[in-house]
Amino acid sequence: MSFDDRDAMPTDIRGYHRRTKHAPNRYAMGPGFLDWTSQPSPFRLFEGVRQTPLPIIEETPAFPGPAPQPAALDLRALGLFLELSFGISAWKSYEGSTWALRNNPSSGNLHPTESYVLLDAVEGLGAGAALYHYAPLLHALEERATYTAPRVLPKGGFLLALSSIPWREAWKYGERAFRYCQLDAGHAIGAVAQAAAALGWRAQALADPSDGEIAALIGLDREDAWHRREPEHPDLLMWIATEPGPATPLDLFALIDAPREFRGQANRLSEDHDGWPIIDLAGQFCRKPRQPRPPAPTRAQWPAPGFEGVSIGAAVRKRRSAQKMDGTTSISREAFAALIASTLPSESTLLSAFPWGAAITLILFVHRVDGLEPGLYALQRDSDVAARLREASRKDFEWSLVELEGLPLYRLYAGSVEKEATKLACLQPISGKGCFSVAMIAEFDRALAADGAFAYRRLHFEAGLIGQALYLWATAAGIAGTGIGCFFDDTVHELLGLTPGDMQFQDVYHFTVGGPVEDTRILTLPPYPDDRRERR
């Protein structure tokens, strides 16, 4: 493929993916500089709506859960659920600048993801069923629409919708921002699944609704939902089961058509904007139609790995994206096994919230794991996908099964891979100075053939969800992780021996885990006023 081909406006999602690849001699197009006067606000708020502050609950069960008994669906439980999913974890301050960190991570801390909940009547919240927007800045629910009936949902749960505002990412990252919005949505799925486990609830993403249905359900098809040049797009819908047992079928069209009244106007995020038409194109290419619910994916029953003495609240609220790794910290084989086991499709891991089959194989650059030889490894998350990757990759790879807690981990070759990991992650030392780093290789062609262009989003959802599992288990192990969205796509493929230009497999995300170097110059402040906290 020539540079001219890559510079042309794409006509499908494959063209977008090719055009937005980074290479050592050519990065995907981004802004020439950061215009701080147009930096979008990371906080969506609605004017003219009723706001209900939520309690902040300190106590949580042992990580990773679930809680032994499901909590009642009340204001207290909603406060914990939404705070652990999307709430602020801390404020940081340095040389006159102050910014928020959140419990759900985001590329560049830009937070394109918004969340909405559809609830039946809840005491202290509303006498009738209603749609609410969660405002992390206030830790409050904003009443966006009210139904005339007290109950509109099936018994035993509620709906949570995720959406994205691409402008927040495009402001900094330009054309590649569409990728990052999808990764962030995947992280959000994991954050929701972990928060649900803290309450003994269960989260499940729904595979069948279309984008149009979700937009209509949460009001994104209305003029008051967002401002011009700041469009907000639906990502997915999740059912949060608050009671055990099979879910009652959901009639989404009845919820959309039921009598209800919207109110409020979305705030404007920026005074000025730089347009990125390719991101709008990518969204159009990937617009999801209503699809049949896929068969339940086959999942091995890997046990949920945990760490003694760590609560869910500690793992979630202390999670940080490391900016630098020390290059000396190592982890035990047991901790490494727990971290990679957390990424496997299983009913006991965060991946249980994902309704599609696994399409990603993890390529691991192992640097400092006690009792494990440095080298390049592959974690098989689906045996058929991994077999096809093995067939497509270099013939001199060993593919030797490693004895590690029965995990499907294969050594491809032994030897130091620090330089390779650093080079492939856009020359970022953080990828080579950790305990290990990961390249997430998706079976690209087959996914798009099965699910159409929406599969592009679905693959990135899966990658982000894997990243969220690594974040939380790394934090529980006393170290840290960082998602890496900048990598040299085709150079990774070259390392694996994949055919140049072929799109059977594509690299979609990187991640690194290790000993963080703290910047002691930065002041850490509490996320919310102390009087908001409930203590026992």
List the helices and strands and how they pair.
Elements: H1 3-7, H2 13-19, E1 46-47, E2 51-53, E3 56-57, H3 75-86, E4 88-94, E5 97-102, E6 113-119, E7 130-135, E8 140-147, E9 157-164, H4 166-173, H5 177-198, E10 202-206, H6 211-218, E11 233-241, H7 252-257, E12 260-262, E13 265-266, H8 277-285, H9 312-317, H10 333-341, E14 360-366, E15 375-379, H11 383-392, E16 400-401, E17 409-414, H12 418-424, E18 436-443, H13 444-451, H14 454-476, E19 480-484, H15 489-496, E20 505-514, E21 523-525, E22 533-534
Parallel strand pairs: 3-22
Antiparallel strand pairs: 1-13, 2-8, 4-5, 4-21, 6-7, 6-9, 7-8, 8-12, 9-11, 10-11, 14-15, 14-18, 15-17, 16-17, 18-20, 19-20
Which keywords apply here?
alpha+beta; 15 helices; 536 residues; 28% helix; 8-stranded antiparallel beta sheet; 7-stranded antiparallel beta sheet
Task: Please explain how this structure is put together.
This protein is of the alpha+beta class. 28% of the residues lie in helices and 22% in strands. The chain contains 15 helices and 22 strands. Strands 2, 6, 7, 8, 9, 10, 11 and 12 form an eight-stranded antiparallel sheet that branches. A seven-stranded antiparallel sheet has the order 16-17-15-14-18-20-19, with helices on both faces. It has a three-stranded antiparallel sheet with strand order 5-4-21, with no helix packed on it. Strand 4 and strand 5 form a beta hairpin. Helix 5 crosses helix 14 (454-476) and helix 13 (444-451) packs across helix 14. The longest helix is centred in the last third of the chain and has 23 residues, at 454-476. The radius of gyration is 22 Å and the shape is globular. The N and C termini lie far apart (63 Å). The mean pLDDT is 94.
